[in-house]
Design brief:
The protein is an alpha/beta fold. The chain has a single domain, classed as Metal-dependent hydrolases (TIM Barrel). 37% of the residues lie in helices and 18% in strands. The chain contains 14 helices and 13 strands. The strands form 3 sheets. The chain has an 8-stranded parallel sheet with strand order 1-7-8-9-10-11-12-13. A 3-stranded antiparallel sheet has the order 2-3-4, with no helix packed on it. A hairpin with a 3-residue loop joins strand 2 and strand 3. Helix 4 packs parallel to helix 5, helix 5 packs parallel to helix 6 and helix 10 runs antiparallel to helix 11. The radius of gyration is 20 Å and the shape is globular. The C terminus is likely disordered. The structure holds manganese (II) ion (MN). The site of manganese (II) ion (MN) has 7 residues, from strand 1.
């Protein structure tokens, strides 16, 4: 049986010449671009800053002689091509997708306010016409917001909603130019997103700065684990600072950060209120765990413990994510992953994780096909 799932964590690779297509040449030259560095890295240049990062090596899994073997594979065909992408998704069993940018993820490092505004505006119009329009009932690209000024940010949320985008991407770490997420300065933006039904998407690993926190023994594991903490901090600020309490219809998605951290944080915040209540400001009108469980959604791709957050810990907003087309993702083994996660687990839990929670965030997304019989081309818009 083919399991169909929505993905609350996917990415689109922008065309190399995106900025020159959507911005005047002098502005385009200052936007993020990448150049190869050796055979395992790239140098990213953004508005006068440069940093090196390791490039993912694409691996595919095959089973041989009782062993699972990972071998060097290739980038999925639809990484940059939206039509090819829908063919990939149909064959993998992925239906709706929240899509984060790739190179555009570095846009928040731009330090010039006018450039930041122009880039976000251009990207959002491009995302609408060149990405979302290919399958508006399936593809949910997240809008960019300029983050050097909160009035600019709120204005772009309003614009993105008005043209028909359904989610806003924010980094887990705010740039130093603006107040952090626990402050009321953000309320106009939260109010606009809430009113428009736009989901706030945080992708892990967007704290800003060097992603290598620790070198030497254990570095690879430590740094990978470390990428998830920033999103937990951002969500804790939104709950504890009262933003989600004041905007009870606002929904927040944390992509690629696993799911069991949510029950952990819920317990911890309840304990803070119970044992340290005399210090808690602002007072919340609902218990923090209730706010967290009802307004925060979390996506995981492989974590074998994640479904238990839903059926054993009462956290119902667990969603799945393919992380297509990234190295950490499930491309090439999506069905193996979905079967290993959900075989033997109740249908209601599987439905909630693969479909229900996602459709609650994005009610405009259509239902996946019922079975394997689906024509692989049928989901591709002409
Ligand atoms: Mn991802």
């Amino acid at each position: 049986m083919k399991i169909w799932a929505h993905s609350a964590d996917s990415h689109f690779l922008e065309p190399e010449d995106l900025w020159h297509d959507i911005l005047p040449p002098d502005l385009a030259a200052r936007m993020p671009r990448s150049e190869p560095d050796g055979d395992d890295g790239e140098i990213v240049h953004v508005d006068g800053q440069s940093f090196r990062r390791k490039l993912p090596r694409y691996m595919t899994k095959r089973d041989g002689e009782g062993l699972t073997i990972w071998e060097r594979g290739h980038r999925p065909p639809g990484a940059r091509d939206v039509t090819a992408r829908l063919v990939d998704l149909n064959s993998e069993g992925i239906w709706g997708e929240v899509m984060y940018p790739s190179l555009g993820m570095w846009s928040h490092l731009v330090r010039d306010r006018e450039l930041s505004k122009a880039a976000a505006r251009g990207q959002n119009e491009w995302l609408l016409s060149e990405v979302q329009a290919a399958a508006p009932d399936r593809l949910v690209p997240v809008a960019h917001v300029p983050l050097l000024d909160l009035d600019d940010a709120a204005a772009e949320v309003e614009h993105a909603a008005s043209i028909g985008l359904h989610a806003v991407g924010l980094p887990t770490g705010v740039p130093s130019a603006i107040p952090d997420y626990q402050f009321e300065d953000w309320d106009p933006l939260w109010g606009l997103a809430e009113e428009a039904g736009m989901v706030i998407g945080f992708h892990v690993g967007t704290d800003g700065g060097d992603t290598v926190k620790v070198r030497g023994p254990g570095g690879a594991i430590f740094n990978y684990v470390e990428t998830t903490y920033g999103a937990q901090r951002a969500v804790t600020k939104l709950v504890a600072g009262g933003a989600l309490d004041r905007h009870p219809r606002l929904k927040v998605l944390v992509s690629e950060g696993g799911a069991t951290w949510v029950p952990f944080l819920g317990d911890r915040m309840e304990e803070a209120c119970r044992q340290h209540g005399m210090f808690v400001r602002p007072a919340l009108s609902r218990p923090p765990k209730e706010i967290l469980y009802s307004q925060v959604y979390a996506s995981f791709q492989h974590d074998e413990s994640a479904p238990a957050a839903s059926w054993a810990m009462g956290y119902r907003n667990v969603t799945w994510g393919s992380d297509y087309p990234h190295l950490e993702g499930t491309f090439g083994h999506t069905q193996d992953t979905l079967h290993s996660l959900f075989d033997g687990i109740g249908q209601d839990v599987r439905y909630r994780i693969t479909r229900g929670a996602f459709e609650e965030m994005f009610p405009h997304v259509s239902a996946p096909p019922l079975s394997d019989e689906f024509d692989l081309q049928a989901g591709v818009s002409a």
